[in-house]
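Objective 1.3, modelling of assemblies. Example input:
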Amino acid sequence: MTEIFGVPTQALFGQLLIGLINGSFYALLSLGLAVIFGLLNIINFTHGAQYMMGAFAAWFLLAKLGLGYWWALALAPVAVGVTGVIVERLMLARLYKLDHLYGLLLTFGLALVIQGLFRHEFGSSGLPYAIPKALEGGTNLGFMYLPNYRAWVIFASLVVCLGTWFVIEKTRLGAYLRAATENPELVRAFGINVPRMITLTYGFGVGLAALAGVMAAPIYTVSPQMGADLIIVVFAVVVIGGMGSIMGSIVTGFALGLIEGLTKVFYPEASNTVIFIIMAIVLMIRPAGLFGAAR
Amino acid sequence: MKYKRSLIAAAVAMLAGTAGAQVSDGVVKIGVMNDQSGTYADLAGPGSVVAARMAVEDFGAAKKGMKVDILVADHQNKPDVGSTIARQWFDVDKVDVIMDVPTSSVVLAVNQIAKEKNKALIVSTGATSDLTGKACTPNAIHWTYDTWSLANGTGSAVVKTGGDTWFFLTADYAFGHALERDTEAVVLKNGGKVVGKVRHPFPASDFSSFLLQAQSSKAKVIGLANAGADTTNAIKQGAEFGIVKGGQQFAGLLVFLTDVHALGLDKAQGLLLTEAFYWDLNPQTRAWSERFAKLHKGAKPTMAQAGVYSATLHYLKAVEAAKTDDGPKVIAQMKKMPSEDAAFGKGRVRQDGRHVHDMYLFEVKKPSESKGPWDYYKVRATIPAEQAFRPESEGGCPLVK
Amino acid sequence: MTPHRVALALMIAFFALAPAVIYPLFLMKVMCFALFACAFNLLIGYGGLLSFGHAMFFGGAAYISAHAAKVWGFPPELAVLAAVAAAALLGFAAGLIAIRRQGIYFAMITLALAQMVFFFSVQAPFTGGEDGIQAVPRGRLFGLVDLSQVRNMYVFVFALFLGGFLLIYRVIHSPFGQVLKAIRENESRALSLGYDTDRYKLLAFVLSAALAGLAGGTKALVFQLASLTDVHWTMSGEVVLMTLVGGLGTVFGPVVGALVIVAMANYLAQLGAWVTVVQGAIFVVCVLTFRRGVIGELGHWLKKPL
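Predicted structure (tokens):
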């Protein structure tokens, strides 16, 4: 068997594929952050909590209403997105004239409230959520056993990410969005309701987080803390990518998943920190991030 | 003012000492300190408080004219919070004994304060075997289990029943390392082999990479040297990667009944684990657990909660026998008398503070074997009390002569 | 007397007299956090830099001082000094990376760096992982004063707190502090006036880190414990909250904020998850309607900055 640095190539392929799966979550979450940041100039600290809410919504739909995974995939993002819209209308909208740091502080506080409430209500041992029947089992690829569900996660997140990229970069709606980011006054002059566009954008970004949460539910334990540490990693991903472009955040997400996967093989002890180390290095060389323009 | 208070305390202590047979301020105060809302809330938490109350009732404190108060605090699994509460309880609230205490770090912190203030500590949920080893004091008793007994129970019994090649999935911090080290020693001693290990970061949410490494090692048993959410996540994802279906078996080194409950039998089936208590062991445990479940939202007790019941009962009996609630005196009395109750049966407390009793190796049932909720374990082996715990001579406790 | 002097006298009087009625350990905790919040406030209130990773200095210093006192047998004054030096060094390294970006990016970068320090602390052998460093001896100050006596320890902590506080006060009102404020208001203007803004920001960052280290190193001796709690990101969040509640950019705000938040955490501890909820709710309320904080509002009402 051929080997690279003492690791059989076959095993390496397996690990790369696994890395890609984690990358899918990073990409989905950092995409949501980038979309929100683009228009609102707010770093959404609540993103992790909203990801968690998505997973809980899936659990709730199944346990209380008997609606399965596929329903959850459609309903949970909408439901959580609606809560996002409410938050934006009631709270965030009051902060646009202030320093952007207040948006960060507000969403941080909200994240604490949401996580605390869920912890109080559901405890923190976590709740089970089964893999949907249609995606049970796995395929033997020769070099590894790939669970079907994981394959689905890669596929689905690629579709969602590329779809979002297409809408924002290639359609008229996206053009308005991008224009509003640059110059809201001008877009308003074209007769477009900018505040509503902002609200819906926030709802959409939150929905993306919830969608990631639904996809995570069958793999990870559904628990109130599931998003808390993840969001910090995603922040680092966002800093590395640079928030400049939608595609940038997608590519960085997947790429860092891969790198993290490799670390788990060659030096597992560092797999928690590798992304932060990369962030530090990138900042030394390119302070604006890989795809960003200095703001 | 601090000085004045300690003067008064000293005076009170002297009075109590001369009078000999008194309970300080007329009340026995038991402080149940644990995690009321975090990771360990389900396996100990409010359930431990229920168990302590049951013990007070079964002891018949009211009938005997003994006043017993139970205080509750949430240490959030943080040693700093735990030590602050312990100091306040001993200094201000006049608590006589602190009970339960999950999380090894908090156990060690509180242990030190109990020694300093000369009060009592009885640990049920905390795992560290140091409590009866190099950190042992005449003020503390370790009731339910410890890392050594889990490693020993699971390690030896699994090897003896054919699981002789091991792969360790270890949480990369002190606790995980200790579990791995203890278990590996037992596996090797019993003629087993360790074919590989991987250290995963703590806490981790994704185990797929490590599971792949475990899978390709072809070890018969995958030892999970971690706890809480890490363990359940590893098992959950192991099911996804077909670990158990592929003929390998998980051995959990620190798994509680509530963890299995959260996982569901579908995922947890085949898991091997060691516990000190299971509700469905015999008629007594069944009857007692039935009562417990009625008081605790229908949930069956974990070994941690059963341990709090058993320990509280024995503590109160010792207070009665010694006619005092002075910390070290009651602890000494507890070591003198044999213990017996519905949950743990017969046992005794050694000089190093270790409560010894039978331990059990369980296998988690298949969904088809289970008759309903909470019917999860079948007994694979009983580890007799005298073999279940680290020999007194090996712990390095200075109290053992 | 100027309002600042009155407030200072009130603060000193409070901490000098309070131990007669309030549990001294609690007060020492308040002072450690107050100093921590003041150090943090130096950066946000006067430099306009929101650090979301100050726990790395606070907790990192706690580990150093605990390790120095316990393993190396340092006397308390040297243990704390070692902690301050280590925090300053860490602050220099982190500052070099973080000051390359402003605003939200700065917050995210400090958060990520702190998380890295957290993971390091979990794994590094000398920190004791989840157990932390326990049974840290308080030792004898200058070989003479026995700090295991509560009264002596209290005076020691009080002196350090007051020293740190006055140092910050001096810095704010020095030419250096003025330049910092100028940078906060308009960085490019300060740059065009010939100030090397990056150097000023880095210096402020290191100073803030060192003072946070002073607070953390002292806390480790007070509680005789250094643990993961102090390096976790929730600690970074807590110090932001203290400063916000007290009043961003006010001299005395962080002290009041620390008192409020520590008291709340202490007395609400029984409520478990609700502590998080209440803390989060305070964040939200402060940001939405109470941006000046307690002292800021007071100062606004008195028409004098406090």
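The two ends of chain C are 13 Å apart (CA to CA).
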